[in-house]
Write a structure and sequence with these properties.
CATH architecture of the largest domain: 3-Layer(aba) Sandwich
Number of helices: 17
Number of strands: 15
Helix content: 40-55%
Strand content: 5-15%
Structural class: alpha+beta
CATH superfamily of the largest domain: Periplasmic binding protein-like II
Radius of gyration: 22 Å
Length: 444
């Protein structure tokens, strides 16, 4: 998750204060409407649509491009994009939606979607059924929009933070370590030890940094899955973290701090964050999603040139890992032009060419299965060579699930107790018990 956007995610609790939201937004209108027509937008009618989105230059440009392309084919349709600083966007959603002041289209992070189903229209069955959507989209990004077997939106990107790691090929070459992935965790840890530099008793270069918010949480939960366990009970009403599989996962993570290939006191989310650490060459390998290369490359071109992603080894036979859902299109219940809004959403998400253009402009991995193959895949890899390994692992991503407070689970509970276990401040058993107890309190 991008540090300027996703690392600052806050808990989604409804705010009971109704506020005026329009002053928070900056708006861009992409086309000029006419006054004639029958208002259906699809046959020359005059229709105005408004989209809300979080403020991100690459994402906003990708939405603008889709809007312009749609307007060219639908004269009389005018699409206006209003963007919000990230924290303002969350606050605006929490106040405007209950007040009935939502726009036609909300560009939402899929992991949030089920929080807002009272204010979102289900995807029309005639547009695409849930079964067909499950065929066309990867399960990771689609999962966030699927609430009680009802589809409430469609993703435009796959958001992954596990499955592959950054590797500095220059450092690896000097140390004689691998850059193509590892068959076992023992092999990865051995390479990470060779890449770690300790001077006067202090770690001055970490071999493998996985101890940021998202890295630690996704590692722990993914390893539970790969060990054959589940972090939720069968009906999703309770967390099951203090289990043999949870112990196996946390023990493996602690073994890397003991090796040591990471010092969790010096390298975590607050100190030497993984993106900063890797691109300033204080870490030889790091766990962070593929957005990081595009984000850091302009300032660190030489490091980016010497960077590849290498596939992580499985814990057991399974290669499944957890992932958040990606950003995508939803239509609000307040929209007076829902039919046209869904038509644009379908164009932006289901049209393979339009979806590819979104990924190229935003620097994101595709949500559509077909765009991870053939010419679209080749085009994306040509633009972003570091995507190649991610195309191998995308089918293994599984949506993390509908969690009562995802951010608290990740950024407070797993992170705090996971770090405590890695540092030796808590035993594995103490950390797992605390995680499970605190996590289950989030169900209320």
């Amino acid at each position: 998750m991008k540090p300027n956007v996703f690392r600052s995610i806050r808990s989604m609790r409804w705010v009971l204060v109704v506020a005026s939201t329009m002053l928070l937004a900056s708006a861009c209108t992409f086309g000029e409407g006419d006054d004639g027509g029958n208002g259906d937008g699809g046959a020359g009618g005059s229709v105005e649509l408004t989209i809300w989105a979080h403020r991100s230059p690459s994402f906003n440009q990708a939405i603008r491009d889709a809007a312009r392309a749609y307007e060219e084919d639908h004269p009389g349709t005018v699409i206006t994009l209003e963007t919000f600083a990230y924290d303002e966007y969350i606050q605006t959603l929490q106040t405007a939606l209950p007040a009935g002041n939502a726009p036609d289209i909300l560009h939402l992070f899929g992991t949030w979607a089920c929080t807002y189903t009272d204010f979102l229209r289900p995807v029309p069955e005639e547009m695409i059924s849930l079964a067909d959507a499950q065929e066309r989209f990867f399960p990771g990004p689609l999962g966030g929009y699927t609430c009680d077997d009802t589809l409430y939106g469609l993703p435009q990107e796959s958001n992954v933070e596990y499955g592959a790691i950054l590797v500095n090929t220059q450092m690896a070459g000097e140390a004689g370590t691998g850059t193509d992935g590892w068959a076992t965790w023992d092999e990865l840890i051995a390479d990470a030890q060779d890449l770690t530099v300790i001077q006067d008793g202090a770690m001055i270069r970490a071999g493998y940094h996985f101890t940021a918010f998202d890295g630690l949480a996704h590692s722990f939960l993914s390893l539970i899955l790969q060990a054959g366990g589940s972090y939720l009970n069968e009906d999703g009403t309770a967390f099951t973290l203090n289990t043999p599989e949870g112990a196996q996962a946390l023990t493996l993570l602690k073994s890397m701090a003991d090796a040591p290939v990471i010092d969790p006191v010096l390298f975590n989310d607050e100190e030497n964050w993984v993106g900063d650490c890797y691109f300033t060459e204080l870490c030889a390998m790091g766990l962070v999603g593929p957005w990081a290369v595009a984000d850091y490359a302009p300032d660190y071109p030489e490091v980016a040139e010497n960077t590849v992603y290498a596939k992580l080894p499985p814990l057991e036979d399974s290669e499944e890992f957890v992932a958040d859902s990606g950003w995508g299109m939803t239509v609000s219940t307040d929209s007076p032009n829902a039919e046209v809004a869904w038509d644009f959403a379908a164009f932006a998400t289901l049209d393979a060419e339009a979806a590819t253009q979104f990924n190229l402009t935003s620097g994101t991995l595709p949500a559509l299965v077909e765009n991870a193959e053939g010419a679209a895949r080749d085009e994306l890899i040509s633009a972003f060579p570091h995507f190649e390994t991610w195309f191998e692992v995308l089918p293994n991503a599984r949506f993390v699930g509908q969690l009562p407070d995802r951010d608290k689970l990740y950024y407070e509970i797993i992170y705090n107790h996971g770090l405590a276990a890695l540092r030796g401040d808590e035993t594995i058993e103490q950390a797992l018990q605390a995680m499970e107890t605190e996590a289950n309190e989030t169900f209320g």
